[in-house]
Amino acid sequence: MRLVILDNYDLASEWAAKYICNRIIQFKPGQDRYFTLGLPTGSTPLGCYKKLIEYHKNGDLSFKYVKTFNMDEYVGLPRNHPESYHSYMWNNFFKHIDIDPNNAHILDGNAADLQAECDAFEKKIKEAGGIDLFVGGIGPDGHIAFNEPGSSLVSRTRLKTLAMDTILASAKYFDGDLSKVPTMALTVGVGTVMDAREVMLMVFQVMILITGAHKAFALYKAIEEGVNHMWTVSAFQQHPRTIFVCDEDATLELRVKTVKYFKGLMHVHNKLVDPLYSMKEGN
């Protein structure tokens, strides 16, 4: 497990974007060899997505031979609703890059048979050869995707009832009206993400408006305490290739010696993103 600590949100977002860029380019994707990327939504990855768009527009990165699978989607929210994760992904990322829409997979929260939709999503991941790199964020209570406290650590893509804390936290996106907030969602399982060949989790304190201190506590639970289904992100201690990327403030609950240890490895971590590879001819 790696813990990459950067000074602030912008630097952490840039490091994460560089890492994704380099992993795609080093993979050498092509018509018969697609790179498969798992993606999150929310406020945390926005800076990372902006940098990836920048690399694409500069000609350094192409998503022509990339397939993506998103973590989750609300149930019952129209696809074109501004707060649906379909809208989020297309407005903040997909429409700015050269990905084939047929290769951008997002769960359908309006499917007639929701369990069949979840099963089909798992099948599509398997048919794509599995996820090469799953990128995610974590919630203040340590959940990943909508795998909230108490979720099975071997769970698969499924229908999930949202916790009241999650509904309350989401109300700000729905004019503060709890009656407008979806109460159910489709989500990949912890086991689904654990199956990825590599996982990168972004933990940025500065993006949390009210419950920021709890995000630092979630990182503490993820890094320094044991595996616990009440903190589902802790399962990734057992993944052979997990990278936590965080800003300085997100480490406030970690022991000083933990922070010093991982900061002492930054010269190794920076070699993963420096130099930044390019798809331009000759680079």
Automatic annotation (TrEMBL):
It is an enzyme of class 3 (hydrolase). SUPFAM superfamilies: NagB/RpiA/CoA transferase-like. It catalyses: alpha-D-glucosamine 6-phosphate + H2O = beta-D-fructose 6-phosphate + NH4(+). This is Glucosamine-6-phosphate isomerase. GO terms for cellular component: cytoplasm. Belongs to the glucosamine/galactosamine-6-phosphate isomerase family. One of its GO terms (molecular function) is glucosamine-6-phosphate deaminase activity.
